[in-house]
Write a structure and sequence with these properties.
alpha+beta, Beta-lactamase, seven-stranded mixed sheet, five-stranded antiparallel sheet, 21% strand, elongated
Length: 607
């Protein structure tokens, strides 16, 4: 019973709930009751995370936009030029084709130096797949004068990169390549070639294996010999292919101008032959010949003996690689006497007909000074002083000048200055200080006959040139200019000159020098008026004083006397024997050179 009542109450309660829930509830009631009902049911409080996430996303987006804007500013404004350069490097390629050095030619267009293709053989023993004896035997069969044993010894030097042979011709190179030997490499390169070999070595010089000038014109005119070639930038595709329409016109063409020298190879050959013969005859240490056109300083011939082969310079003594006519000093001796005569004439202390007494001996500061002949010549005029090469009379002559005046006139000649010749290694002459020169009378005395100071043979030629050209000190030079294959000059250097002597004085001295040759010099040539002066000077020692039994002989000449133009200087160092003087050693060489010069330049005989 109780259970039935209970069931009824439960049923009625459920019914009433269904009835109440089916009625609509006002919205305002629901809003008011929802929070309390939730709390009553134990539900959590709503989280603020969605709002935070929204703010975070917004902040990230704004930051990204600001970052992109900053990056765009950096790329477009700050780094614009740098990025353009990088893009240009990626899109372009730098082309610098190989351009040979300019060729060197003589005054007649004969090739003295040029670039030619050559092959170099290298071996890399570490890469050999055959035994070394087999490789050596195979190469020896192709190479001349190379035995297998020699090659094996070379293989032992290092593991790779051993140069075996240079200057291989194309035929030999192909034979080596056809052997198919691993570790054997034939490289193709350009090398400097000197077709005249030793004939022009003193002038041209040479380049090393790095193609850098090391002597002569090759070194002194390095910039002139290097052709102008700017780097060329052309566009390329993404695959690296060059776009044809981006290539400039005449890309691989360079001018064919050549460096032309003033030297005449024909005269050079005659001078070298004459000098070699005399050096051999007197067993001399060395010798030199210089021929200059005094009108502008052009060097027509420049010979040093012994010399070297520029094609194999590495086999020569280092001493031979320099041109000693510009790098070595010597005391000129009597060849300087005509210049002293010119200074005395300009100073007005003598006239051409002045007579000076030569006793054969004069003492200066306690030092005895004698003539080379050890005898006096009595009363002699200026011409006879040069003819007899009187030291005593020259001392008397130059003592007539005040010491300070004489010293200043020597300085005005530029003795202590370089000539400015376009060769490397030139040195300036040496002259005592003014204090020493003016305090000690012996300095004036020794300078009067060309000793006590020193200069280079090239400087002496420059000074003698001033006698020949009317008193102008011209710049000796070898480079005539840049010429094309037709011989047309496109560029010429400018060489300075200055007036140092009165033209009348210089011509008077040349005529006085003519009497020296006319009185029996070995340089005399029939029907031609030639001036000259011999010189036989002692050689100064490295620690002062003079070397015993060592002398340097020389002869300088100017021609033609009626219209002076050419200067010829011959110097022979340390000839051996008893009869070794400028007149017997150097003058005969000058005679042969003068004869060749007359023939080549078509100098007419005197009327």
């Amino acid at each position: 019973m109780a259970n039935s009542r209970s069931q009824q109450r439960s049923h009625s309660f459920s019914k009433s709930r269904r009835t109440r829930s089916s009625k609509p509830v006002p919205r305002n009631r629901i809003a008011k009751r929802s929070p309390n009902s939730s709390r009553r049911r134990g539900q959590p409080k709503p989280s603020p995370l969605p709002k935070f996430r929204l703010l975070l996303v917004w902040a990230v987006l704004v930051s990204a936009m600001l970052g992109l804007g900053w990056k765009a500013y950096q790329l477009q404004i700050v780094q614009a030029e740098e990025l353009k350069q990088k893009a240009r490097l990626q899109q372009t390629v730098n082309i610098r084709p190989y351009i040979p050095r300019r060729s060197i030619v003589d005054s007649e267009g004969n090739i003295l130096a040029t670039d030619r293709l050559e092959y170099i053989l290298y071996v890399h023993p570490i890469q050999f797949k055959k035994p070394q004896p087999e490789v050596a035997a195979a190469l020896s069969a192709v190479l001349e004068n190379r035995t297998p044993q020699d090659l094996i010894e070379r293989f032992k030097q290092r593991k790779t990169g051993i140069p075996i042979a240079r200057n291989l011709d194309e035929g030999v190179a192909k034979q080596i390549q056809e052997l198919g030997l691993d570790g054997v490499e034939v490289n193709e390169t350009y090398a400097r070639f000197y077709p005249q070999e030793k004939m022009m070595a003193d002038v041209v010089g040479f380049v090393d294996h790095e193609r850098q000038g090391q002597a002569g014109v090759e070194l002194g005119q390095e910039k002139l010999l290097q052709r102008d070639l700017k780097s060329l930038y052309v566009r390329r595709t993404a695959l690296g292919a060059i776009l044809p329409n981006s290539l400039p016109q005449n890309l691989l063409l360079s001018n064919d101008w050549r460096v032309q020298l003033t030297v005449d190879m024909r005269l050079q050959r005659a001078a070298r032959a004459a000098l070699q013969q005399q050096i051999q005859k007197f067993n001399a240490k060395r010798g030199a010949v210089i021929v200059m056109d005094a009108t502008d300083g052009s060097i027509l011939s420049l010979v040093c003996e012994p010399t070297f082969d520029p094609n194999s310079f590495y086999k020569s003594n280092l001493e031979l690689l320099k041109n000693w006519t510009v790098s070595d000093l010597y005391e000129p001796g009597s060849t300087f006497k005509p210049i002293n005569v010119a200074l005395a004439l300009e100073a007005g202390v003598i006239q051409p007909n002045t007579v000076i007494y030569d006793s054969g001996l004069v003492k200066v500061d306690g030092w005895p000074i004698r003539n080379a002949t050890l005898r006096g010549n009595g009363s002699i005029n200026i011409a006879e002083i040069l003819q007899t090469s009187s030291n005593v009379a020259m001392v008397d002559m130059m003592r007539r000048l005040k010491k300070a005046d004489y010293y200043q006139r020597l300085q005005d000649l530029g003795i202590t200055q370089k000539t400015g010749i376009d060769l490397p290694g030139e040195v300036a002459g040496r002259l005592k200080s003014k204090e020493v020169f003016t305090e000690r009378s012996i300095e004036v005395a020794t300078a009067s006959f060309g000793q006590g100071f020193s200069l280079t043979p090239m400087k002496l030629v420059q000074l003698q040139g001033a006698l020949a050209n009317g008193g102008k000190l011209v710049t000796p030079h070898l480079v005539k200019g840049l010429v094309d294959t037709e011989g047309t000059i496109h560029w010429q250097p400018d060489y300075p000159s200055q007036q140092i002597l009165d033209p009348k004085v210089s011509q008077t001295v040349v005529e006085l020098m003519e009497t020296v040759v006319d009185e029996g010099s070995a340089a005399k040539t029939a029907n031609y008026r030639i001036g000259g002066k011999t010189g036989t000077a002692q050689k100064a020692g490295p620690r002062g004083g003079y070397l015993p039994n060592a002398k340097i002989t020389s002869f300088v000449s100017i021609l033609p006397v009626e219209s002076p133009r050419y200067v010829v200087l011959v110097v022979v160092d340390e000839p051996k024997g008893g009869n070794t003087y400028g007149s017997t050693v150097a003058a005969p060489v000058a005679k042969l050179v003068i004869d060749a010069l007359i023939s080549l330049k078509g100098i007419p005989p005197a009327k």
